[in-house]
Amino acid sequence: MANIKDIAAHAGVSIATVSRALRKPDLVKDKTAAKIAAAISELGYKPNMVAASLRRQKADAVIVAVPDIHNPFTSLFVQGVENVAREHGVKVLLAITEGRQDLLDLHYEMVAGKQADGMIVLDVNLPTAIRTQGEDGRTLPIVLVCEYAEASQQPRVRVDDLQAAIAAANHIASLGHRDIACIAGPERQRMSHDRQRGFRLGLRRAGIELHEALVERGDYSIRSGFEATRRLLEQGRPFTALLCENDEMAIGAIRALALDGLSVPGDVSVIGIDNLRFAEFCNPSLTTIALSTDILGEEAMRLMLDYDIDPEIGRREVIVPHELIVRDSTAAPRGQA
Amino acid sequence: MANIKDIAAHAGVSIATVSRALRKPDLVKDKTAAKIAAAISELGYKPNMVAASLRRQKADAVIVAVPDIHNPFTSLFVQGVENVAREHGVKVLLAITEGRQDLLDLHYEMVAGKQADGMIVLDVNLPTAIRTQGEDGRTLPIVLVCEYAEASQQPRVRVDDLQAAIAAANHIASLGHRDIACIAGPERQRMSHDRQRGFRLGLRRAGIELHEALVERGDYSIRSGFEATRRLLEQGRPFTALLCENDEMAIGAIRALALDGLSVPGDVSVIGIDNLRFAEFCNPSLTTIALSTDILGEEAMRLMLDYDIDPEIGRREVIVPHELIVRDSTAAPRGQA
DNA sequence: TTGTAGGCGTTATCAC
DNA sequence: GTGATAACGCCTACAA
Questions:
Q1: What is the pLDDT of residues B8-45, one digit of tens each?
Q2: Measured between CA atoms, how close is B24 to chain A, in angstroms?
Q3: CATH fold for domain B59-158+293-321
Q4: Beta strands A241-244 and A269-274: pairing type?
Q5: For testing the chain A interface, which of B81, B86, B106, B115 should be mutated: the one with the most A CBs within 10 Å?
Q6: 3-state DSSP: chain B helix, strand, coil percent, rounded to 5?
Q7: B285 interaction partners in chain A (CB closer than 8 Å)
Q8: Is the dihedral of CA B244, B248, B250, B256 positive or negative?
């Protein structure tokens, strides 16, 4: 493959000039630039970015590590990251970790090894190297999203899950429900902690207490929502509304209720959080809270870029707008209206 | 940041020995290796992979370009790619193109610029450079998936959509349906072409012809399935079964039928292809054809790896197993049983 | 088993 | 405006 030297020879100039012609075109005479351009297209030259990267100590790429591309967050979030990255000529590479530590570490190597300038971690794990390394002061360009808000010294962003959950609880309370069940997420996760707290806070403001017996946990998957609902139904303790920490579990819940012969929202109202694409097309369509996670992605990327300027950059609490989207899965409890 | 030279100095050996200790540990004496290991951990050394990459002309990374991470194919496919990649120490980076040519080309640059060893393209577009460059014989390590099966000289894999569609049609025909509607995908796409042909072939074997008036097109999104079904219903021409080219459109169809007061499968049976995670939890749950697209991903990655060995490598037609998954959305038409 | 040295393809700093 | 040339950090013959 042709390299910069070949171009220089072919155009009768020095390699320095070729390099300039490509990166700082205003520094070379038009005529020379033309000769060079001709040589380039004639030889089909493509600059070797690895060499450039080695020399400039910059890869112009960041890695976004996500556990799973089905995650409701992921898509919108990544889109936000890309919006900002594109403006700055940075490429975004998605790494799927499946929640596995080893896969996360593998991609972290790319940052340590300079193949990427930084990493945005939207995962339950943290690269192992980061924990051990924190002490010597030198933090790597890593931005954390949502999880581990307290755990580490890294720059991080997070969304206000609390407010979203409060909005969901408000909606249910204002419809007149009093006997309310809840499907929570994994115990250890920050997001679950906040959404759970939001539910309780929202209800308490309306003078309602959540019965501990009516709280079941899932792992944010459809199936876990399905099974959690089964467990709720088996208890026999009645409820007319079901607060789900995310849409996936809400979809599983609706299915479980339907199989049990219960009508939604006639017998039980169901609400989720996330506004998945599928939410609109369930039977019944799902009432939910939409979060603009793309803004979160944008902020994460900005934080990453700012890191270049000042590595002391800290954290950003991103307040993304949330919006209640009322569809067919919620209504006033039977007998009220 | 410490480099190999620092380690060499600190351990009292030459840089060659350090390099060997890392890449070919059996070539160095245990005692030296220990000294080197000590130096490495003491200085917190991380090999610069960019430099290694420049020297070895290899990045040990491939890019998988997909239009959209919601695509039903994507997740499973990527998983397949990663399975094989991991065995070979290759990192997989996902690039999201949104179906845009410029974004695809941007990531293609990484291959041209040696930041990645190759690219697997699961997209409706093709990198522009590839078309212009085909002539001079030198093809780049690019593997095409599904689309453009005829269009180019690149290595490619594709799945047998025809058989999957035939299986769907068989199921519907064997239930006794005769008045059958269909929601097709985008006209130009290879996949749609094959699935469409499969539907017709399967039906014809049962002596059934598809009415052209009962064929509507969508773009594989839920919403398009919803709208296509609306159009079918407006026509007034009766049908008792609906063949959908994918699950997303089938989910949209079910919603449209429900809103129209029709029961599934009482009035209309609905079948999809793909076996999305959501398929199991629809109301009613969706009968569908499961395709093991992960195998397709594995083959694509193998083709990529084989390319290193012999660039003349051609194409593979991957026959992935398909499986009919009968759920609640299909039944015999009213009056039969 | 270890060391020496050349080069991978750029970019950036000088000089001219 | 342009040209020499020294890095960037590593790998790998070849020599010892």
A1: 999 999 999 999 999 999 999 999 999 999 999 999 99
A2: 19
A3: Rossmann fold (3.40.50)
A4: parallel
A5: B115
A6: 50, 15, 35
A7: 255
A8: negative
Domain ranges within chain A, ordered by starting residue: 4-43, 59-158+293-321, 161-291
Distance in angstroms: CA A95, C1' D8: 27
Query: Is the model more confident about A102 or about B134?
Result: A102
Euclidean distance between CA atoms A179 and A177, whole angstroms: 6
Chain mean position to CA B54: 30
Q: List residues bridging with B269 in a β-sheet.
A: B241
**Model pTM greater than 0.85?**
yes
B32–chain A Cβ distance below 8 A for any pair: no
Measure the CA–CA gap between B304 and B65, rounded to whole angstroms: 14
- Whether the CB of A78 is below 8 Å from some CB of chain B: the reply is yes
Distance CA A36, CA A18 (A): 7
Phi, psi of A7 (to 5 degrees): -60, -45
**Residues whose CB falls within 8 Å of the CB of residue A193, separated by 6 or more in sequence, listed in order:** none
Residue whose CA is minimally distant from C6 C1': B55
Question: pLDDT for B154-200, tens place per residue?
Answer: 888 888 899 999 999 999 999 999 999 999 999 988 889 999 999 99
Chain B: closest CA distance from residue A137 (Å): 12
CATH topology of B59-158+293-321 equal to that of B161-291? yes
At B191, give phi and psi (nearest 5°): -60, -45
Angle at B217 between CA B286 and CA B262, to 5 degrees: 45
Q: Which of B40, B43, B57, B69 to mutate to test the interface with A (most CBs of A within 10 A)?
A: B69
How many contiguous H segments (helices) and E segments (strands) does chain B have? 12, 12
For strand D, give the nucleotides within 7 A of a protein CB: 1-5, 7-13
Domain B161-291, classified CATH 3.40.50.2300, yes or no: yes
Of A144, A146, A143, A142, residue with least CA distance to A159: A146
Low-confidence ranges of chain B (pLDDT < 70): 71-72, 131-139, 147-152, 337
CB A248 within 8 Å of CB A220: yes
Tokens 């936000």 map to which residue?
Answer: A80
A56 touches strand C (CB under 7 A): yes
> Phi and psi (nearest 5°) for B200?
-65, -40
The reply to whether A233 touches chain B by the CB within 8 Å rule is no
